[in-house]
Amino acid sequence: MRFLTPSLLLLAACAGGGGDPTDELLTDSAADCDYPQAAEPMALNQPLAAYSWAQSLRADGATVALDLATAFCNSDTSYDWSPHDYMLFVSVPAW
To answer: What element of type H or E holds 68?
Structure first.
């Protein structure tokens, strides 16, 4: 699963088709899954750090905890991430 943008206000996971099975960021099993090394500082087309939030808002309106490592490895007990290829974050800075 790829993550698009750094922080979260609204979360939408997108099912995709035809993903490249040789992509180094994809894995077949949560049991042997390791979250990829994140780029620091954040960079385009590089993995985000394994951020987590106590509350996130899914597109269906549900408020749930979100941990990028469990989403990436599909080991989240509250949601099945396996049909999704991308996760979109809409960010609104609050300074």
So the answer is: helix 68-72
CA distances from 29 to 2, 32, 35, 58, 77 (A): 16, 6, 12, 24, 15
Q: Which residues contact 53 (CB under 8 A, 6 or more apart)?
A: 8, 65, 66, 67
User: Exposure of 69 by Cβ count < 10 A (0-12 exposed, 13-18 middle, 19+ buried)?
Assistant: middle
pTM: 0.60
Write the pLDDT tens digit of every residue in 30-70: 568 899 999 888 888 888 889 898 988 887 888 989 999 99
Determine the pLDDT at residue 93: 73
Instruction: Say if residue 25 is exposed, middle or buried (CB neighbours under 10 Å; 0-12, 13-18, 19+).
Output: middle
Q: Cα separation of 27 and 73, whole Å? A: 7
